[in-house]
Design goal:
alpha+beta; 274 residues; single chain; 7-stranded antiparallel beta sheet; 2 domains; 2 helices; elongated
């Protein structure tokens, strides 16, 4: 009886965790660039009814991993010319110059600060290719760095459907291409850990190795295209989350019933001894 209670306790814990995942998804239904999470559970085996394998009794369930749904979110017009979304694969890279850390994001709510840096809402610098007077597209083998357009030298900044940033040279009055935004991706998405602020950070894989992200211009070599003046909405499916919530609630109730029933059986055994 005690084993059945312990097994049911793992079920209670697992369904509480599932409810937490569902709750987080629903809470972020309007979060820009948010990717829904899914819990991956596995059974636990600890005893066998015979001396040989093949007759095991399960001992419950545990949360093995949390997987992200990388599906495309809806593209929404914002009216802000510096907002930008990705359609397809890839992420924008933003750099935290204080902690010297690069993060990745699908939330393209960007703007220029007073110093001409293209930044995200966290104040991190958006990364791209410096065209250095060359016509676009940028050479993907060239160095990647912060997109910065000096407001004392340029005005009337704009961005096109290829992620190229143009500005008017105050000295000549000519419209020139200055930067092109870079799109980054990794082969193993399991090495991307969610962080606060709609960000992802690269972490070690199962072999203890850090992934090496690849970068290219938008729309090239499997990278997604970009859409200026838009953002990518959350990909949370509310209908699916409500179903998951109901299933988790019912499963929690069923596991509670197992504990109650086991307790009643134990009580009957105690009464027999009396």
């Amino acid at each position: 009886m005690m084993s059945s209670m312990n097994t049911a306790i793992t079920g209670l814990s697992a369904n509480v965790q599932q409810m937490a995942i569902v709750g987080d998804n629903i809470a972020n239904v309007n979060t820009v660039g948010f990717k829904a999470s899914e819990g991956l559970f596995e059974n636990v085996i600890s005893q066998s009814t015979k001396a040989i394998q093949g007759n095991e009794i399960g001992s419950g369930v545990l949360l093995n991993d949390i997987r992200y749904n990388w599906g495309q979110g809806a593209i929404q017009q914002t009216g802000n010319q510096f907002d930008i979304s990705i359609t397809g694969n890839g992420f924008f890279a933003v750099y935290d110059s204080v902690n010297l850390q690069t993060y990745y994001t699908r939330a393209g709510q960007f703007s220029f600060d007073s110093n001409g840096n293209l930044i995200d809402p966290n104040g991190y610098q958006v990364q791209g290719y410096d065209l250095q007077g060359n016509p676009p597209p940028a050479d993907p083998t060239s160095p990647i760095g912060p997109i910065k357009i000096d407001p004392t030298l340029y005005s009337d900044i704009s961005v096109d459907a290829n992620g190229v940033y143009y500005a008017v040279d105050k000295a000549t009055g000519d419209k020139v291409a200055l930067f092109q935004i870079a799109i980054h991706d990794v082969t193993d998405r399991s090495t991307m850990a969610k962080m606060s602020g709609n960000l992802y950070k690269l972490v070690q894989d199962i072999n203890g190795q850090f992934p090496v992200p690849v970068a290219d211009v938008p729309g090239a070599n499997g990278m997604g295209g970009v859409n200026p003046g838009t953002i990518e909405g959350s990909n949370v499916d509310l209908a699916k989350e409500f179903v998951n919530m109901i299933v988790a609630q019912r499963a929690f109730t069923a596991n509670s019933k197992v504990i109650t029933s086991s307790d009643e059986i134990l009580q009957e055994l105690v009464n027999i001894k009396r």
